Amino acid sequence: METEEFLLPRSRLANERLHAMIPGGAHTYAKGDDQYPENLAPVISHGRGAHVWDIDGNRYVEYGSGLRSVSLGHAHPRVIEAVRRELDRGSNFARPSIVEVEAAERFLATVPTAEMVKFAKNGSDATTAAVRLARAATGRPRVAICADHPFFSVDDWFIGTTPMSAGVPAATNELTVAFPYGDLAATEELLTRYQDEVACLILEPATVEPPPGYLAGLRELADRHGCVLIFDEMITGFRWSEAGAQGLYGVVPDLSTFGKALGNGFAVSALAGRRDLMERGGLRHSGDRVFLLSTTHGAETHSLAAAMAVQTTYAEEGITAQLHVLGERLAAGVREVAAGMGVGDHIVVRGRASNLVFATLDENGQPSQRYRTLFLRRLLAGGVLAPSFVVSSALSDADIDHTVDVVAQACAVYRKALDAADPTPWLAGRPVKPVFRRLA
């Protein structure tokens, strides 16, 4: 059924080499070749701005760059300049660098709802530190996670709740309970059922628009039940506002975690929050010490310099507003061509304009990995690498127009598959797979 063949021979060989040496063939499951159509998982050579090139020589307009981390585009001049300034000054010392002071001051000025901050290299370490801190502060064992949010940490307290729970003891799993997003009554029922046992509520504050009063209601519930409210702002940080969802909606959590956009691809994350909680991981108190965050590379100077440059760029260039304008243009274009091809109810763009995802629905309106495979194949062949439609500020109007044109071509094929009630002839291999599954 393919009218033209799109082949990636060099990427295919490189993927075999990756799998021979690296479990999963990638360092993040969401980047695995099982997430892409068979034999169409490009291996990247380099990137600049909103474009990446694979080792086969193809150029793509890229979305969701670095799992949403590269929000300013690849090799952003201002960030690279800040990093270069530190590289020949040394990256790691026996004592804190003055850069750590400057980075903390900059972060707390950007996120004024926080009183202290500690940096790390990845989001999982920050969220796990927040959970440990909450348990220490409350003396309670249970963690309440939002069931509607896909990922919080690689650590046992979360991974044990997923289909990939192999290696996590059942006793650990039993300490994690879940609540639904947007439902205060259900959350209160959970807190009442486990009265005085829940150390914290942890959630992404706004992957979808929160119902009116919801976040304030969670704040009140946490206060009334004596548990710690933790906002995971890995995604909402900077994309919702420079201070994340807490800055946009005006609800202050006890602790919050940031990462992804904070470093524009460089490895940096942050745990921030109330001084009385954060200081339990410090030296200026008389209580039990909490092993909060202690990482050899947690304060690499060039990563902290990147974070400061990102914050400056967001503030001075109004990046969050740019992301929304670009996302709105993309969403409108995709919806228009999908409707025009008669697949507007099947290729569905969702989410905030700065954080768009797409759903691929079958002839019965159900989510379909097979139809996603068909869609991704056509996008890749048209030079669009889009595991999501999450924009970066490096995108031009021409990039988005090209993307919409390619989506229109994909929609024409999608319509044929729907009419046949079977996308198989257009897949050319196995369908893409969900990240979280029990068996490989």
What does this protein look like?
- With 440 residues, the protein is α/β, with parallel strands linked by helices.
- It has 2 domains: 9-74 and 319-426, Aspartate Aminotransferase, domain 1, CATH 3.90.1150; 92-299, Aspartate Aminotransferase, domain 2, CATH 3.40.640.10.
- It is 40% helix and 13% strand.
- Strand 1 (44-48) and strand 2 (51-54) form a beta hairpin.
- Helix 8 packs parallel to helix 9 and helix 15 (369-381) crosses helix 16 (397-420).
- The radius of gyration is 22 Å and the shape is globular.
- The two termini are 29 Å apart.
Low-confidence stretches: none
Strand residues, percent? 5-15%
Q: How many distinct folded domains? A: 2
Category from helices, strands and their pairing: alpha/beta
CATH topology assignment of the largest domain: Aspartate Aminotransferase, domain 2
Largest sheet at a glance? 7 strands, mixed
Report the average pLDDT across residues.
Answer: 96
The portion of residues assigned to helices is 40-55%
| Spatial order of strands in the largest sheet | 4-10-9-8-7-5-6
Rg, Cα atoms, Å:
22 Å
- The beta-strand count equals 13
What is the CATH top level name of the largest domain? Alpha Beta
CATH superfamily of the largest domain: Type I PLP-dependent aspartate aminotransferase-like (Major domain)
Helices, by number, come to 16
